[in-house]
Specification:
The chain is an alpha/beta fold. The chain has 19 helices and twelve strands.
Length: 585
């Protein structure tokens, strides 16, 4: 929790005023037993109605002041804790935006969601407890013990010894419970990860009629979480009975001993009544403190998990400024690039092996190969979604690791294989990379992407609202909007990761024709499954097992690359293959 102290500074006034008014409330509450003792000793025992009336009115006034102080404390506490939680939540979200794919793989998305929601709520609740109940309970406890010692030292020592025993018991219970709370949060992470995966793939679950299987999987995860929660709850439930038992035993001893003192006229009846009230206040304070300490132990686990994310230094080095040389993105060069995903080691784990090629402005580099050949991984290295393991990628002769990530990605338009759309209007989705784009620019990008016609047919056109992940559009429509989003920024480097797989051949050809002029001003990297999509490319890279199996134009590869010939034969058939070979001989 101490690591989050910087988020307190903007609201330091609230963090001072809230405990101050809570201490005032405790002070007024501590006066009440003394006033009650005065009524008994000077009013009831002396049969003086004026004392009873005046002291009673004083008790009402003190109660009103206590109420006002408590309400004021609650107002300041709510402001402080809510702002504190909101700032931490925003800081977490901002921090996550700086993470590379490697950093995201470290925490997992389900765990990050838990930390942003449940853990922040726990920390926010802890702050509210610190300012309110954790000020009130110890203050009332200490104040009641002091007042008890003032009334009668011997009776007060009985209470003090009882408290020391209780503290020792509670410390042992709390130390044992902390690992249990860690286990709860870990199980909650696992459950959230499963929920996220299941909801994202709900269509697949329905299509394969696997609802029963997925329900059983969730039941197992949910049972694990429930059992961990029950185990922790058992220990939390033990606290209250232990405190009550020990304090009630203490109260019995005090009443027996105090009664003898009253009988011996060593203590007045009113003082024993006040002392008993203080013991009751100590009991209620202890019950509250024990519950708070358990909640604090749980919230402290959440605070450490939140601090872990905030303290995470992104593994990807991000230079503070651009090199002195102007980067116009005229030339991209892969120089002996190899790559393995973080956490793997050894040559056998390399996804890409010794990749070298060059591309210049106006050229199209097509990448083709079997599933798992490393095509998508290759293009993900250009915007530094991952960093190369060995070798270098250079733009205009500058290693991309020397370019600030934001500046690098501003020069790249990337169309992913998964056409992810955000909840909002079609216009907002197309203008995602250029929020200040005019409507004319948005329409022009949509026309290039062959999306304008179907958008215009929608009831609200470009103002049509998309559901989550574009659920109310077909796969081909989503792909075309994603293409328009990338084209709008007119990037000098354009990456198309199998982004036309959901388009029919006619629409794909129209798209290629429309992009021809734009590609003259860009370096285009295009991953495709169909040879018909790459035949016109300036350079075709044929990938196999993470290495380049062939490189050249379509005509060159048909003569020299057996892997490319196999792909062609699988798509066009043996007869067409023989025709091409006969034509080229």
């Amino acid at each position: 929790m101490w690591g989050l102290r910087s988020y307190i500074k903007p609201y330091w006034k609230y963090f001072i005023l809230a405990p101050f008014f809570m201490l005032l409330e405790v002070f007024f509450d501590l006066l009440q037993p003394l006033l009650a003792a005065h009524i008994v000793n000077a009013g009831v025992m002396e049969r003086d109605f004026n004392v009873i009336r005046n002291t009673g009115l004083a008790m009402v006034a003190v109660a009103a002041l206590s109420l006002a102080s408590g309400i004021t404390c609650n107002l300041f506490t709510s402001r402080a804790s809510q702002h504190f939680g909101a700032d931490i939540r925003e800081a977490l979200f901002t921090k996550i935006q700086t993470f590379s794919f490697e950093d995201m793989d470290t925490f997992k998305s389900g765990s990050l969601i838990t930390r942003l929601t449940n853990d922040v709520t726990q920390v926010q609740g802890l702050m509210q407890m610190l300012l309110q109940r954790l000020v009130r309970s110890p203050s009332l406890l200490i104040g009641s013990v002091i007042m008890s010692l003032i009334i009668n030292f011997k009776l007060g020592m009985i209470l003090l010894i009882t408290l020391i025993i209780l503290v020792a018991v509670l410390v042992g219970l709390i130390r044992f419970s902390i690992p249990l709370f860690n286990n709860i949060q870990a199980r909650l992470d696992k459950m959230n990860m499963y929920l996220q995966e299941n909801l994202a793939g709900i269509r697949v679950v329905k299509a394969f009629a696997r609802s029963d299987y997925e329900t059983a999987r969730f039941a197992a995860v949910n049972t694990d979480y429930t059992e961990a929660s029950i185990k922790a709850a058992r220990w939390m439930a033990v606290n209250s009975p232990i405190v009550t038992l020990i304090m009630n035993a203490c109260l019995v001893v005090i009443l027996l001993y105090g009664g003898n003192l009253v009988w011996a006229e060593s203590v007045q009846v009113g003082d024993l009544v006040a002392f008993t009230n203080y013991v009751v206040q100590v009991l209620s304070s202890l019950l509250m403190v024990t519950g708070l300490l358990m909640q604090m132990a749980q919230a402290n686990v959440s605070a450490m998990r939140v601090s872990e994310v905030l303290a995470m230094e992104p593994k990807m080095n991000n230079p503070a400024r651009l090199p002195e040389q102007t980067i116009a993105a005229e030339h991209v060069k892969f120089e002996r690039v190899s790559f393995a995903y973080p956490g793997t080691a050894g040559a056998k784990d390399l996804i890409l092996k010794d990749i070298s090629f060059e591309a210049r402005r106006g050229e199209t580099v097509a990448i083709i190969g079997s599933t798992g050949a490393g095509k998508s991984t290759l293009v993900q290295l250009i915007p530094r979604l991952y960093d190369v393991t060995a070798g270098s990628i250079q733009i205009d002769g500058i290693d991309i690791r020397q370019i600030p990530v934001t500046e690098l990605r501003r020069r790249i338009g990337m169309i992913f294989q998964d056409s992810f759309l955000f909840t909002g209007t079609i216009r907002d989705n197309i203008a995602f990379g250029k929020p200040d784009a005019t409507m004319e620019e948005i329409i022009e990008a949509a026309k290039l992407a062959q999306a304008h016609e179907f958008i215009a047919r929608l009831p609200d056109g470009y103002d049509s609202v998309l559901g989550q992940r574009g659920i109310n559009l077909s796969g081909g429509q989503k792909q075309r909007i994603a293409i328009a989003r990338a084209l709008l920024i007119q990037p000098p480097i354009l990456i198309m990761d199998d982004s036309t797989s959901a388009l029919d051949l006619v629409t794909e050809k129209r798209l290629r024709d429309a992009l021809r002029n734009l590609m003259k001003n860009s370096i285009t990297f295009m991953i495709a499954q169909r040879i018909s999509s790459v035949m016109e490319a300036d350079t075709i890279l044929v990938m196999e097992n993470g290495a380049i199996a062939g490189m050249g134009t379509h005509e060159e590869l048909m003569k020299t690359c057996a892997v490319y010939q196999d792909i062609y034969r699988s798509q066009f058939g043996e007869r067409e293959m023989l025709y091409v070979e006969g034509k080229s001989s």
